[in-house]
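Researcher: We plan to redesign the surface later, but first we want a full-length starting point. C-alpha cells attached.
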C-alpha cells in the first residue's frame, strides 16, 4: 500500500464545485492500494501514519504526531501513486489494485481511521476531485508498505 502524506495548515476536496471533505491543520493522506494489499496491511500503514512524528514540538523539532497535536486527516484515494514511468512518456497504472479491490481497501482504511482518530474527512473513491491544500513546511512524506 502506498501513501503520500502532506502536512497541511488546511486542505479540502471539491467535487463538481462542492466541498465534500475539509480539515484545518493536519495531514492530507493520498492512498493507493496495490493488487497484493490486504486490510491488515492498510491497518499497519494507518498506524504508522497516526504515529509519524512530523509536527513541531515546543522547540520546533519534528517530534509530535497528528494524534499528539489533535490534527485532522483528509484521506483521498489516488491510484496514480502506483504509476510506472519506466517506459515511454505515458505512465502505466497496472501496479494499482483493480477498482473493486482498491475501493474495498480504501473504505477499510477510512473506517479504521475513523475508529482510531476523532477528525477524519475524505474525498470520494473514483470521483474527479479537486484537492486544495496549503502544505505546511513544506513537509511531504512518501510511505510504502508491502505484503
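Model: Full-length starting sequence:
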Amino acid at each position: 500500500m502506498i501513501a503520500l502524506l502532506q502536512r497541511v495548515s488546511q486542505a479540502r476536496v471539491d467535487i463538481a464545485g462542492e466541498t465534500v471533505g475539509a480539515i484545518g491543520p493536519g495531514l492530507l493522506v493520498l492512498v493507493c492500494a496495490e493488487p497484493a494489499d490486504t486490510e491488515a496491511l492498510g491497518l499497519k500503514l494507518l498506524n504508522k501514519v497516526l504515529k509519524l512524528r512530523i509536527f513541531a514540538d515546543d522547540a520546533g523539532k519534528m517530534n509530535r504526531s497528528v494524534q499528539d497535536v489533535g490534527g485532522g486527516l483528509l484521506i483521498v484515494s489516488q491510484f496514480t501513486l502506483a504509476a510506472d514511468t519506466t517506459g515511454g512518456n505515458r505512465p502505466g497504472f497496472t501496479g494499482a489494485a483493480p477498482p473493486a479491490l482498491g475501493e474495498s481497501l480504501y473504505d477499510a482504511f477510512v473506517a479504521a481511521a475513523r475508529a482510531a482518530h476523532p477528525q477524519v474527512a475524505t474525498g470520494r473513491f473514483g470521483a474527479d476531485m479537486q484537492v486544495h491544500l496549503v502544505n505546511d513546511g513544506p513537509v511531504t512524506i512518501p510511505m510504502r508498505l508491502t505484503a
